[in-house]
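not sure who needs this but someone in the group chat was asking about HmuY protein from Aquimarina litoralis so here u go. i didnt clean anything up, its just raw.
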Amino acid sequence: MKKLFYALPIFGLLFFASCDKDESNEIIDESAITSDFSLKDIYDFQKDVTISSEEGSTGVVRIYANNQSALSNYSTENLSLMEIHSNETLQESLVRHNIMDLTETTIDSEEGDAKDASFEETGNDIAFELVKLTKANPNSKYAINFNHPQTSIAKAGWNYYTHYSSVNQAQIAEIARHSVWRRVYYGLKYKANSGSSWATIQNEWRKINNNQSFSHTKNPCYQFRFRVKTKKNSAYSVTFDY
């Protein structure tokens, strides 16, 4: 089975703002240097899911996995395309679409997660990439909302997901959580150009509280790579844009 190789997490400075504009020093992952990076070289199987926004935009999300049965669980029920108006933030768009409820807060029991900060990867990674986007409004930005398939296990373990931006299509990467019950952690890397190594912007795993978002900007940027760790069917959104 083909596997991704990731550097060991290195703890960085923590920021407490609800939306983090990152311009910190980068950590280079020399093991990931490649001039011809392709997700097809990493994953054995792929599947395309077409999604639409309420305003009429359409997108095609390509899902990658090393287990074909994992792909069969995904449909339009698990992914949705959401437009972000030119004058609003990701959080404002989530509220407007009745996806985020600002009156809900993170539950207290999540505080115990701090002692499990060195979560180990288990190899059940599934990756996502928006390969086609047709906008109804050319001035709008976009986000993809994720509601992963519900597991039948009462006390499910951690699941890992990777979100790639389209190449040469983004300088901003942002992630937001909008479920009081579903815990979400993330890490972020990027390539400055096609021949660059992956550079670490945010070490895995940084916790996202409910109704919180983190935004990172890099210029130049060839591609972003979000890593997300969550349980059960979680609810979070990812956007890549200028």
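also The chain is about 5% helix and 40% strand. if thats useful
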